[in-house]
Amino acid sequence: MGVDEETVAILPEIRFADNVLNPWREELPKIFRMLNLVPNQTVLDIPCGQGGVSVHLAKEYGVSVDGYDLLKGYVDNANDYATEQKVSGLCKFYTDDIRNVIDKSDEHDLLLWIASPHLWSNYNQTIENLRKCVKDKGYIVIADAYLYTDKLKSEHPEYETFAETSRAVTEHGDTIVELIDYKESLWAKNYQEEREAIVRAINSSSNPTEKEALEKYLEQFNAGEPIDKEHFGLYILVLQINKT
């Protein structure tokens, strides 16, 4: 995550509108309407964060959700949110390493790979692993960042350019249904909303150690904003999996 272990431990204290932690909060519902989701379909949400994206899907479409995240605090918040939204019977969130989930998961109708860590060396390997968990003609929705130019790879070796990503996701014979390049358009609002959430967490904390860790994270967050805006664009991709 680019932050130390102490800071990671307090991240679940930072709460966001509708429990959605990513820049695509207002864009994703339009994407999901394209997929013709129906009750009893299954969704795998990795990493699930605080559950805001997939809880919305369960509430709106009646789908069943399995979500996994490495942070127990995020998972606890996600399960609480599912209960609050009256879809706890449809949503189950667990603490686990995503790589373990990939190896043991059943096939699902939809896989959410949104604001995810880059766990494999390139997008070809990423898709190779993710598609194991998706049924034939099922979908993967990816929302991620990309490098504006390959000249920046020495600083950010885990990311690829938009053109490289677009090529890599179809190397297994799958079909791009939708690919939207938002470039820098979502950064400003996302950074403002997240900054406000961090400040709220700082102001509401009564634990000096926790408050200090949150203040340290705010400094790191502010330092990262100009780097993201200079180096990274944002996109959403809908990929239909072809296994036959």
Summarize the structure.
The protein is 41% helix and 22% strand.
The spatial strand order of the largest sheet comes to: 3-2-1-4-5-7-6
Q: Radius of gyration over alpha carbons?
A: 18 Å
- State the shape: globular
Tally the helices: 9
List segments where confidence is low: pLDDT < 50 over at least 5 consecutive residues.
none
The total beta strand count reads 7
Descriptive account of the structure:
The chain has 244 residues and is α/β, with parallel strands linked by helices. It has a single domain (24-186, 230-240), classed as Vaccinia Virus protein VP39 (Rossmann fold). The protein has nine helices and seven strands, in the order ααβαβαβαβαβαβααβ. The chain has helices at residues 5-10, 28-33, 52-61, 72-84, 98-104, 123-130, 162-168, 187-204, 208-231; strands at residues 42-45, 64-69, 91-95, 108-114, 134-147, 175-183, 232-240. A seven-stranded mixed beta sheet has the order 3-2-1-4-5-7-6. α3 (52-61) links the parallel β1 (42-45) and β2. The longest helix has 24 residues, at 208-231. The radius of gyration is 18 Å and the shape is globular. The mean pLDDT is 93.
